[in-house]
Amino acid sequence: MEAEAPRRTRIQNEKREIILEAALEVFSNHGFRGATIDQIADAAGMSKPNLLYYFRRKEDIHLTVLQRLLDTWLAPLRELDDIGDPITEIRGYIRRKLEMARDFPRESRLFANEMLQGAPRMTPILEGELKRLVDEKAEVIKGWIRAGKIAKVDPFHLIFSIWATTQHYADFDVQVRAVLGPDRGGEGRFEDAARFLEQLYIDGLSPKR
Description:
Largest sheet: none
Number of helices: 10
Distance between the termini: 64 Å
CATH superfamily of the largest domain: Tetracycline Repressor, domain 2
Number of domains: 2
Oligomer: single chain
């Protein structure tokens, strides 16, 4: 029988969290290739040998950060409930995704960088956990369509388009603020985006009479 891995102490867990927070900052700014163990150690405020006690390789840190990121990123989609009113559920999903764009811009940039590089470290997760969740929610949307509660749309491309339109406000935030200017480029831009996207999707998804 395989021996269980020893439980980490509170101090060890705290150190790991410090490393992962520092790694998120470094990876989101420099990408996987541009980031180094030395940069992560400096950002974490510890020596390189101390960091390597917790993570043996840069790849191990990066994969851990990505796995945690994906759990956070998929949480709003998991909340899409087939029992609820479709319009309310989709409006809530749009709102939650925009809140993530506002509150987790580094995570969004890191995820986008990984996708642009061909997802070399995330392909198994994308083809496994992510695909299963999207397939499940696509069936929920198909059920709403069959019941005549929303217009007939491709459920996968609906999900893709919500991802694209909401994450734009994290990945291209500098562009958004520059174009909107100082009068509209403050925190209110997320509420403005939410109202516009709600109108766009709700009008487009309302059943045609």
